[in-house]
Structures are given as structure tokens and as C-alpha cells.
Amino acid sequence: MKKLRTTKYEIRNAKRRAFTMIEIMAVIVIIGILAGIVAVSVVGKIDRARVISTMASLKMLHSAVIQFKLDTGRYPTEEAGLQELIEQPTDVTGWNTGGYLETTTLPKDAWGNDFVYQLFPESGKPFVIISYGANREEGGEDYDKDLYSTDASVTQGR
Fold it and tell me: pLDDT tens across 67-80, in order?
């Protein structure tokens, strides 16, 4: 036989089985805060990885330019730039057959920009290769900071 009456205890239990709107909103807010913290952490690591990757490319290009100078007796011209590392100039002897890079195209920095090659920059060095960083403009701070092939951290591999 079916029970016709519902007791107060059964009514109270039925109400407690469901989540209230406040509980659901609290969980959503907590999940949002945690997602925000994770997103900030991941974005920071991606930016740091781009800097490290660009510094490695600068070091590789710097070494290639030095090897070019040792083989040919001169640095690549500012007009032709780094292209002379992969395409033999007509006015040099001793150029390494196959070029000075493992690829047939010039690498780009981690933000997809071309590197800038300068002969005899203000630093007094014979040449410098520059990445203008995330903002793609000269100057900047943090991840927008310009990266130079002549920086000690790049040329010493740190």
C-alpha cells in the first residue's frame, strides 16, 4: 500500500538534495578565479619561452656571421644583411658551400618578425643582430624589450 502522507523529515531531505543558486554561483566564481590564475601563469611561461627561443636564434645567427667573417674576410654588408649567410655574394671568396645556416631561409624571431642586422652599431661592436621583441618597436620593457646578439646572456649561452 502507498503512503499518502509525507512527513516533515522527508520534505526537509528533498529540499537538501538540490544545490541552491548561491552554492552554484560560489562554485562558478571559484572555478573562474582558478582559471584566471592558471591563464596568467601559462601566458607568462609562453612569453618567457619566446624570449629564450629568440635568444637562441640570435646566438646562432651571431655565430654564423662570425664564421662568415672568418671564411670571407669581411662581414655581411648592411644592404644584403643576413641574406649573405644563405646566398653567396658575388664579391667574396672562401664562402662556405651550402651557406652558414642549416636552412635555406632566414629564421624569424619568436614573434614572427625579421631580425635586424647592423654593422658598426653605437655599442662599438663590429655588428649586432636585433629582435625588437613582442611590441615590434625599438625600445620597451619586459617582453617588449629589444634583444641583441651582443648581450652577454646571448653570446655566453645563459
Answer: 999 999 999 999 99
Q: Which of 82, 111, 87, 110 is nearest to 97 (CA)?
A: 87
Q: Which CATH architecture has domain 8-155?
A: 2-Layer Sandwich (3.30)
Name the residue type at position 150: T
Q: In what order do the strands lie in the sheet with 127-131?
A: 116-119, 127-131, 147-148
Domain boundaries, the chain: 8-155
* Residue 95: alpha-carbon gap to chain centroid: 32
Antiparallel, parallel or unpaired: β 116-119 and 147-148: unpaired
Contact in structure between 130 and 116 (CB atoms under 8 Å): yes
Q: Where are the alpha helices (DSSP H) in the chain?
A: 8-16, 21-72, 152-155
Q: Indicate whether this model's pTM tops 0.90.
A: no
